[in-house]
Amino acid sequence: MRAKLVADSAANFSTDSTLEVTYVPLKIRVGKEEFTDDCKLEIPKLLAAMDACRETSGTACPGIGDWLNAFEGSDEILGISITGALSGSYNSGIKAAEIYQKQNPGAKVFILDSLSTGPEMQLILEEYRDCINAGMDFESTVSHIKEYRNNTRLLFCLGSLKNLAKNGRVNPLLAKMGSILGIRVVGQASNKGTLELLHKCHGEKNAIRQIVRSVISSGCKGGKFRISHTENLPGASALAEQLFEIYPESDITVTENRGLCSFYSERKGLILGYTAPRPNY
Ligand code: X90
């Protein structure tokens, strides 16, 4: 039996038809409304509710039961979660893995803490798929993927840092800096799986140029670039074009953020997953 790929919805649904993944949804609460981050969620509706909401809003990670449902029916499961430093999803996932293996003797479950989100999770899911297609066994795939993750990275330029700050995921002082009119903050996922702010840029054009400079200075040699955006196709396309000029042999895709990434990156948010060594890792 082929191993089943499982990821929480922070991975953004893939539009790549060769990538079969069972997604475990996170939940988003905006005022009194609750949204489930599954394939039925309409992002424009979520964003409109966020705009209109004057009350508190937040997110909730999947529970153990949600992960268990996704494992069902398979005896080899390869999974990935959003960074465990900012979400309880990884914890639920590994607890579910223990329970599932007890209930199904012989079943194998591995959940990787991505230390990241969105498009970096997508890169790792694609690598899992390639390992499976190459006929690699479960244990070799697990050790390969741990090594692969040391060579994937994430950069972002968010629409605003408001929702991250309100939910305690980023220092409020940094969020203030990001809310100054016209300032776009460029940051990366740190080795610990937290947000690390790198640059304050005037306007999106400069922010995109800065993302490209950061890619180059990280020692990237091309390869895959996975860009996701929240209602910002022009920004995502501009980033793709600039990367393509520097790395013409590369494989670049642009997709839309789903609920979780949209909630935190907000309108105009851009996230880039790419391959380059993680320093001091
Ligand atoms: O468990 C939960 O409720 C989910 C909490 C998630 C909090 C952070 C999500 C960030 C999503 C923002 C840009 C990329 C940041 C990367 C940091 C590792 C998107």
Features:
281 residues, alpha/beta, six-stranded mixed beta sheet, four-stranded parallel beta sheet, 10 helices, 39% helix, binds heptadecanoic acid
Structure explained in plain terms:
It is a single chain. This protein has helices at 43-52, 64-71, 89-103, 118-133, 138-149, 162-166, 172-178, 203-217, 233-246, 259-265; strands at 4-8, 22-24, 27-30, 33-36, 57-60, 76-81, 108-113, 152-157, 183-189, 195-202, 224-229, 251-256, 270-275. The chain is globular, with a radius of gyration of 18 Å. Helix 4 runs antiparallel to helix 5 (138-149). Strand 11, helix 9 (233-246) and strand 12 form a beta-alpha-beta unit. The strands form three sheets. It has a six-stranded mixed β-sheet, with helices on both faces. Strands 2-1-6-7 form a four-stranded parallel β-sheet, with helices on both faces. Helices cover 39% and strands 25% of the residues. It is an alpha/beta fold and 281 residues long. The protein is built from ten helices and 13 strands. Bound molecules: heptadecanoic acid (X90).
Summarize the entry for a quick read.
This protein is an alpha/beta fold and 281 residues long. Helices cover 39% and strands 25% of the residues.
Give the mean pLDDT: 94
Tally of individual helices = 10
Helix content: 25-40%
Structural class of the secondary structure composition?
Answer: alpha/beta
Radius of gyration using CA atoms only: 18 Å
Unreliable runs: none
Please write the string of helix (H) and strand (E) elements. EEEEHEHEHEHHEHHEEHEHEHE
DSSP strand tally? 13
- Spatial ordering of strands, largest sheet: 10-9-8-13-11-12
Global geometry: globular
Distance between the first and last residues' Cα: 34 Å
